[in-house]
Fold each of these.
Amino acid sequence: MGDSNGSPASPGPGDDAARARDAAHRPGNAVSGGYGHPLHTLAATVPIGAFVGTVAFDIASKLGEGRAFGRPASWLAVIGVVSGVVAAFFGVLDFLRISPGTKARQVATLHLILMDVVVLLFVVSFILRRADDTHYLHGTPVPAMVLAIVGVVVMVVGAWLGSTLVYSYGVRVVDDEDQLAGYASTASEGVDADAQADATTDPTSDPSGDVD
Ligand code: HEM
């Protein structure tokens, strides 16, 4: 974008898409994590675990002797909300790398909306828990539990869109050339004379080194 340093004549829509994709590969600044190390991906694991844990403890609080689980469930809801806001902060930094007017930006916007809805659902769920003084003794109030379950369902859809951003559109994934570094043969790094001798006696190898 805004690059006017004599690029090839009449760049087409494919060039624009490739430029937009390559821009989304890179972090906007050091705060969002290094190239190939997005902090949003890492930070998102905490609210996902906390929200799923909330529902697990809510269910436990309704079973047999498990009523005391209402208390840790409340704590997990708070941990999820706070860590969700932190994850969202890193998410917005990466969101700003995705060009407006693209399919990837649409998916990212939907992901943003759904994840914000999830956090809000858990905020309301937590307020309902606190409003019921007996929930530490009698388990999670049903309306709070229903909101938490709905929150987790919405979160699964949102996370699926998040993975579309990464695995289908390559947001914050390194360039293809840089990925090749991970596939360079480690055997080539310390090849000794024996290994070379083996290679020349191996009928399946090409000892000439000729390229056709
Ligand atoms: C509770 C809040 C959030 C959670 C749990 C969450 C979760 C996720 C997950 C699971 C992925 C896929 C990561 C992977 O497979 O490596 C993802 C990717 C992504 N999310 Fe979120 N997200 C949240 C909030 C946000 C917000 C508010 C935005 C802002 C638009 C956002 C933007 C992105 C972007 C741009 C990606 C692509 C990869 C990256 O940047 O690391 N997320 N998110």
Note: The pocket of protoporphyrin IX containing FE is lined by residues 38, 40-41, 44, 47-48, 84, 87-88, 91-92, 94-95, 108, 111-112, 115-116, 118-119, 159, 162-163, 165-166, 171-172 (CB under 6 Å).
Amino acid sequence: MRIGKDGLAEGARFVPSPNCDERPAGCAVDLLVIHHISLPPGEFGGGGIVELFTNRLDPAAHPYYATIAGAKVSAHFLIRRDGELIQFVSCGRRAWHAGESSWKGRARCNDFSVGVELEGTGEVPYTDAQYARLAALARALAARYPITDIAGHSDIAPGRKSDPGASFDWPRFRSLLDVRRRRPKKNYGGKRRSVKLPRRPARRQKK
Ligand SMILES: [Zn+2]
């Protein structure tokens, strides 16, 4: 996988979302944020996520939709259960996925991050296809942008957000990246970078 100069991932289905704007001038993209979403909650494979991110969600279609319809939100990417990659916002633009957030003392994580949604609940295990696609995407992003950290939404908005949840296997994801990192240099376009994952479960909040 490659991220083009236009910020679009080759091989992704591009469904443009209006819920985005310009990143602040001179702001480097150095953080990857992992989320989960399912619409209706707990159901997979329907059109709700794409409808939400493109402001086409019918509030009458499901009781839960009435509570979120009208929310102007997006993410750069969605990885469906079968591994399909859908892109809503160019990585060069600011998607609206993080909300009130902070990472290493920097607020407004939307400014400097790429947001990836995994179709899931945080309780049901994510699929092999999702881990594989996410690892490929992380590698492609690190080749295009100076990505130094990967965090969960729960890491940048602790107490407020819990995604990607307990079912996201950080060690597994880390090992997928590590395997890639040992491969020949040409896979990185000469831009090999060390990507740091947040230590788990240090930032998990217990009530
Ligand atoms: Zn999230």
Note: The two ends are 40 Å apart (CA to CA).
Amino acid sequence: ISSWSPLHGDWPRRLGNGAAGLLYPLLGACLWAAVVAYKPVIIVHGLFDSSGDFKNLQRFINESHPGTNVTVIDLFDRSASLQPMWKQVEGFKDAVYPIMQNAADGVHFICYSQGGLVCRGILSTLSDHNVHSFISLSSPQAGQYGDTDYLKYLFPQFVKSNLYHLCYTAVGQRVSICNYWNDPHHKDLYVNSSDYLALLNGERPSPNSTEWKKNFLMIKKLVLIGGPDDGVITPWQSSQFGFYNDNETVVEMQHQDLYLSDFFGLKTLAARGDVIICSVPGVEHVWWHSNETVFHSCIERWLV
Ligand SMILES: *[C@@H]1O[C@H](CO)[C@@H](O)[C@H](O)[C@H]1NC(C)=O
Ligand SMILES: *[C@@H]1O[C@H](CO)[C@@H](O)[C@H](O)[C@H]1NC(C)=O
Ligand SMILES: *[C@@H]1O[C@H](CO)[C@@H](O)[C@H](O)[C@H]1NC(C)=O
Ligand SMILES: *[C@@H]1O[C@H](CO)[C@@H](O)[C@H](O)[C@H]1NC(C)=O
Ligand SMILES: *[C@@H]1O[C@H](CO)[C@@H](O)[C@H](O)[C@H]1NC(C)=O
Ligand SMILES: *[C@@H]1O[C@H](CO)[C@@H](O)[C@H](O)[C@H]1NC(C)=O
């Protein structure tokens, strides 16, 4: 696990010593053009968003990596984002697959909030994906549990104390947020009921887990971005696979069963040095994709 600090890194060198360039200027120029062509970036939005919310992020990418082909997938917008997670995975998968097939050198994923869980589903079930950097931008990777003002606004009738009555039923599981609602006081209900996150995180066994792990491990980097002032993702450490125990103390990723069991490859990725944790204070949930400091500190260098 490496924590990236913008102050201590050096930029990845994209150009070699260029012997070929000295001997064959034209060939060198062609190689240069090929090597600096940035991989296409695919953006997957979160709950209640739509593609228009990513104008700033698109601008940051265009400014730092000119010529990058950025696609914000315009599916399951607004209230349609409440549809079940597996359904969204299938829809987004159909949209991203042709982009991957057009990208011989692979693509990058930037997946925001609930979109980070959609992307987990895609990366686990698509056996020939070519995603290099999977950038998870404040996504509840270990689940969500919190009656924040935002959630109260979205679901005025369901406060934290009784959301599990809705979520942990077959009907509740038809609502996206219930697919990853993780009530630490009713762990067995979550494990038995969650048709999505409990399967992906290996809290409930799935017949496809070996295949899913193999697929997920084809990514080159997992970048987990989050911060203490998020205000929506609860606990905020869920953006980095930390979560509450049954007395609501946050247990960090490295002490979570889902990490220790290496169920879906998280520990393997960390041992490879390919899990990057980027924590930024002072960012509220709705600003993650529009904050230029976040882009420069946590995202930019993984888009090469
Ligand atoms: C990218 O930046 C260039 C130069 O500033 C500008 O002309 C172009 O319209 C931008 N493209 C997008 C998609 O923002
Ligand atoms: C960007 O990628 C999409 C999907 O692969 C493709 O349809 C489109 O033509 C590309 N745009 C440019 C300017 O290359
Ligand atoms: C969860 O499932 C297990 C195994 O099927 C069962 O023994 C247990 O009673 C279930 N727990 C709840 C709360 O439904
Ligand atoms: C496992 O994979 C099979 C075939 O790929 C699929 O039909 C099935 O729905 C998958 N199971 C789950 C739990 O996703
Ligand atoms: C809560 O759990 C943590 C970790 O298991 C433990 O250290 C702490 O003492 C517990 N706190 C209470 C009030 O039970
Ligand atoms: C952007 O992030 C920085 C922290 O890196 C924070 O100080 C600033 O308030 C943020 N701006 C917004 C609009 O979120």
Note: The pocket of 2-acetamido-2-deoxy-beta-D-glucopyranose (ligand 3) is lined by residues 188-189, 192 (CB under 6 Å).
Amino acid sequence: MVRDPRATSSADGNSVTRREVLIAGSTVAALTGASGRALAADRGVPLARPNRDYTPVVVPNGAKLPWKIAGGAKVFHMVAEEVDHEMAPGLKVRCWGYNGRVHGPVIEAVEGDRVRIYVTNRLPAPTTVHWHGVLLPNGMDGVGGLTQKAIAPGETFKYEFTLRQSGTCMYHSHHDEMTQMALGLTGLFVIHPRRPKTRADRDFAIMLHEWRIDPGARRPNPNEMTEFNMLTMNARAFPGTAPLVVRTGQRVRIRIGNLSAMDHHPIHLHGYQFRITETDAGPLPESAQWPETTVLVPVGSTRTVEFVADAPGDWALHCHMTHHVMNQMGHGVPNLIGVKPGQLDERVRKVLPGYMTMGQTGMADMGDMGMPVPPNSIPMLGGKGKHDTITMGGMFTILKVRDGLKGYGDPGWYENPAGTLATTAAADDLRRDGVDPGKAPVIEDDAG
Ligand SMILES: [Cu+2]
């Protein structure tokens, strides 16, 4: 906490509205001297403190936008600019983002907060910021041409409104949307309830996105409409995604936003049943929540799920569209499943040294081959797993649940308790159970 030397003391010495207190994200927890009894002088809304009044969100591979209290509001400063970003080890791209990040840092606030958000445009084109799902005065809605003049390069605009809701909202450019969102100008806007009914111990925020980045290219192609070849969580593709680390028994919340251009994403979690507890319009009443293992997150929407992490392990969390867990895959490849190349390889190598027919049994080997890929591109799939190569890419990450964790760094791979790991069947077991690997059971048509 750094106190602005220009700040003046208030009569009660406690009001942060009359002191200008600079607070950087979670360090606000260290705010002990000032009780912050009045955040908005005109409304008398107290300052909710992270960790005491709400659990701050965790942004895997991402960041949160710092804020300070000034003039009775939480003040944020966003800078729209070009950003060099690593999407996965080996793939660097030049995107448009905010404050050096792609996507923009998560804005975190509390119901009742007055927020003042400055937006500086350092892009080569005009832009705006729309606060997606946030209830606000029309002139603060950020739609270029409709509700405001676009922010010209070099200009700084001020948005200001009071948060009248809680939930997981988003923000994104609303000027030349197709180009600017495709280049990454999006982010999450989390508004915690003033009086939460349930508190999560771990509260994760993940933004989904899809991109077209041709192997070797640095610039995502915003003109793409169907053939997206990079699918990301917080702008990272597996094996570049950080795991979600949780201690056994903790209540977990995962907020998922989707500002992809064209695709909805059914996000599936292994090992658990969760409840869908929120949409972009805030909390769902308990009677309207339902259990699922896959949550469909439509374009332009957020969904929040919650569960108690009572099953330790390394659990996959991924989009269930199978082409969304591949990296930079060209879909024009011929179908070679079942093809027997015979002498083909030998003959082709005479004119094309090193040629090898691939894909006769599928794509899984691609991750293992260590095949050279063009500069600045990554293999279609494959991350290192405990037991083997994980034959996934793209929108894939791992929920790591462990007993007695002391911190939230990557705890490594799960040690399966004896008798709980699928392995080669023992001969004794096969014999006891009458299973002959050489003979499939005879199956008759179901007579009904
Ligand atoms: Cu998907």
Note: Helices lie at 177-182, 344-351, 427-433.
